[in-house]
């Protein structure tokens, strides 16, 4: 029996070992990995082989330029690949986590992904000043911040589409930040796409917690993911972690010791910059926490 040739597609949805793979004709097919290892993520390009039906086998994952992880207390899991831009959604209310923003920025810089912080619900002026003040350290570190109200569809498109055009952007945020409203403003038929992915995966309502890729009506792609609680950073070594802090960059290489950890060593340029007010204490404290957590993880 002749073997069918492989075709290239892109993973647009994942549910367990079920992959929704979109081919060049725009159709989404249910596919499975060959063997026990399932190492593809939403955004990956893959080679798929079909055997005369609608289901296919993923024969090969093509090289990716980056990969992002999410984690909880139990494990770290890959969830998005080949991302050009991170849209990190926060809101004036409810309160967002500075710690999670900081970790997301470290992960993005380590993966060479540009980031924009989207401050949603900017029309709620009574809490806008406080939100701006809390985001000031990230703005000072060079992260662009776009203020908008996702309920204003025209405003949302005007402020964000120019950044996403021709790119794959990842929409990320904690629950309650208005991420779904923002998605619906950018992708009016997102619900229809979600249903199509669900049918392709035979996963029904359970795919509401899945990561998915949508095509923007104008140009570019948007990967939406469930509200996150933590970022997977255990795969990063100390060099990648220090490189995740943009404000460290002007001082790296100026320490007295070549293997300086920037925590306690004499002649440390990073500690001197913190003492001089050029690095925020809370940002350096996050750096120390991430290093300590990764060191503790390696001991187990």
From TrEMBL:
Its cofactor is Zn(2+). Zn(2+) binds at residues 255, 260, 262, 268. GO terms for molecular function: GTP binding; GTPase activity; metal ion binding; rRNA binding. It is an enzyme of class 3 (hydrolase). GTP binds at residues 120-123, 173-181. Signal peptide: none annotated. Residues 65-231 form the CP-type G domain. Its EC number is 3.6.1.-. One of several proteins that assist in the late maturation steps of the functional core of the 30S ribosomal subunit. Helps release RbfA from mature subunits. May play a role in the assembly of ribosomal proteins into the subunit. Circularly permuted GTPase that catalyzes slow GTP hydrolysis, GTPase activity is stimulated by the 30S ribosomal subunit. PANTHER family: SMALL RIBOSOMAL SUBUNIT BIOGENESIS GTPASE RSGA, SMALL RIBOSOMAL SUBUNIT BIOGENESIS GTPASE RSGA 1, MITOCHONDRIAL-RELATED. Monomer. Associates with 30S ribosomal subunit, binds 16S rRNA. This is Small ribosomal subunit biogenesis GTPase RsgA.
């Amino acid at each position: 029996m002749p073997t069918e040739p492989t075709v290239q597609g892109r993973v647009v949805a994942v549910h367990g070992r079920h992959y929704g793979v979109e081919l060049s004709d725009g159709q989404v097919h249910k596919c499975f990995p060959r063997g026990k290892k399932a190492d593809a993520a939403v955004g990956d390009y893959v080679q798929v082989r079909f055997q005369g039906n609608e289901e296919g086998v993923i024969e090969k994952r093509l090289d990716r330029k980056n990969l992002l992880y999410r984690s909880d207390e139990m494990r770290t899991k890959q969830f998005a690949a080949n991302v050009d831009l991170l849209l990190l959604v926060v809101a004036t209310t409810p309160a967002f986590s500075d710690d999670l923003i900081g970790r997301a920025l470290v992960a993005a810089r380590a993966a060479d992904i540009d980031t924009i912080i989207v401050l949603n619900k900017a029309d709620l002026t009574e809490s806008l000043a406080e939100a701006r003040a809390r985001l000031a350290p990230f703005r000072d570190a060079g992260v662009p911040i776009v203020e908008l109200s996702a309920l204003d569809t025209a405003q949302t498109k005007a402020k964000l589409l120019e950044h996403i055009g021709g790119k794959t952007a990842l929409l990320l945020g904690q629950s309650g930040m208005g991420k779904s409203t923002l998605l619906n403003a950018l992708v009016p038929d997102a619900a229809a796409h979600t249903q199509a992915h669900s049918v392709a995966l035979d996963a029904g309502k359970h795919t509401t917690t899945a990561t998915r890729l949508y095509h923007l009506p104008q140009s570019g792609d948007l990967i939406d993911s469930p509200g996150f609680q933590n970022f997977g950073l255990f795969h990063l070594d100390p060099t990648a972690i220090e490189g995740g802090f943009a404000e460290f960059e002007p001082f790296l290489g100026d320490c007295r010791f070549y293997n300086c950890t920037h925590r306690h060593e004499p002649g440390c340029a990073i500690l001197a910059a913190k003492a001089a007010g050029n690095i925020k204490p809370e940002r350096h404290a996050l750096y120390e926490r991430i290093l300590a957590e990764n060191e503790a993880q390696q001991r187990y």
